Amino acid sequence: MTLVQSKFAKWSKQYIAGEWVEGTSDKTVKNVNPYSGKLLVEMKASSEDDLDRAYRTAEKAGKEWAKTPLATRAQVMYKAVAQLDERKDEVIELLIAESGSTRIKAEREWAAARRVVEESASFPYRMKGEIIGSDIPGKENRVVREPKGVIGMIGPWNFPLHLCLRSVAPALALGNGVVIKPASDTPITAGLLIADIFEKAGLPKGVLSVVSGSGSEIGDAFVKHPTPKLVSFTGSTEVGRGIGKLAGEHLKDVALELGGNNAMIVLDDADLDRAVEAAVFGKFFHQGQICMALNRIIIDESIYDAFTEKFVATVKKLPYGDPSLKETVVGPLIHEKEVERLLEVVEKAQQAGAKLQYGGKAEGNVLQPTVLSEVKPDSDAAQNELFGPVALLIRAKDEQDAIRIMNNSDYGLSGSVFTTNLERGYDVAQQMETGMIHVNDQSVNDEAHVMFGGEKASGVGRFGGEWAIDKFTRTRWISIQKPYREFF
């Protein structure tokens, strides 16, 4: 085991069955700062034996956890919120170092993570059953709502803390056991930090475990294991399809939040300054490495040139580089291979007729905020998720053409429309084939008490509020026959 930066030494072990232990795999997990390239910490990976122990312990401990008083579960959530408050600076520094978050993004992620845990504190009191009448004399039908059992959570690297807690906190609050497999690039903020927070918040040992390891060693086993009743995954559509297929073979429920090819429609009556400001944020927040980030900005041709001029002028002012600096807006991509991939996208888009307005160069893992205009709606760049700081400006003939371009995608996660006529905006929103649409806002929105989820290739299932309660619990029918029935 090699520890390069001593302040990360505490994160060199796995958290399995309530204990901080070394993984038993022969492989290791190397945690590298994507901006500096420095090794933060190296740990022994988890093996299938570690995974089996984590799941079986979560099953046993989870059954006892489900029996605890509602106030006990709620109190653990409130104490976890207090942990996030007390350790805000630590959380932000970890997000910057591990995932390449800018300080602006890290602070917003901390706030979103805190809010989802706070919302989850109310969930124990919101599990409601139902009594339904019967056609049979003397029968009472009770539909009871219970914890689902054990939840397997496969976490992402882009918003590691928030997107893991979006499943973990509701699942725990509702009485489930949980096992997290964090992204290999962010084992701390997508798993170990969460375990540490809940351990200090008083969660009983064994209810939560974290197993960090390669997908080739424990990926399939994580889904196939007989213990978890639901597997929650946030990540690429390609990987999500594989998880969904494997879970289906083993008759497991899934919550899949996958890729997006999100678009903003700018109608001919839009306030251009407001639309530009929103589009720049929606595209370049966290370097565009967000499932909800804007890929395509579709502009009515009557205002296309004016919008493009204002947009490019704004993007040219964006500070980029070191994510730890307060003023930085665009930081590093997670890997050098992502920089290479996006530079190739930019080059091919130009070959297909797009015009490079700004950017297109890289310094290490930092890709300049890049703007391409006159992008063809059917081009590869416009049809695939970019997941990086490259903005595509697309010309539309009119409102209906913009809607057609918007819907011409395999994805349907988020989107937005800008107009000074709110009812017109609502009408357009109703025609946009996405799970979430925002009028006079950009596409990156997430509120803990509101439904979150996509359509088409962007996922299966819903997160947030009442929808999370539905997802992480089960209902059962228990009938009571008071006077005995006559059967013959």
UniProtKB/TrEMBL annotation:
InterPro entries: Ald_DH/histidinol_DH, Ald_DH_C, Ald_DH_CS_CYS, Ald_DH_CS_GLU, Ald_DH_N, Aldehyde_DH_dom. Its EC number is 1.2.1.3. Coiled coil: none annotated. Keywords: NAD, Oxidoreductase. GO terms for molecular function: aldehyde dehydrogenase (NAD+) activity. Gene3D superfamilies: Aldehyde Dehydrogenase, Chain A, domain 1 (3.40.605.10), Aldehyde Dehydrogenase, Chain A, domain 2 (3.40.309.10). SUPFAM superfamilies: ALDH-like. The active site is at E257. Residues 20-478 form the Aldehyde dehydrogenase domain. The keyword NAD applies. It comes from the Bacteria. Belongs to the aldehyde dehydrogenase family. This is Aldehyde dehydrogenase (NAD+). It comes from Paenibacillus hunanensis.
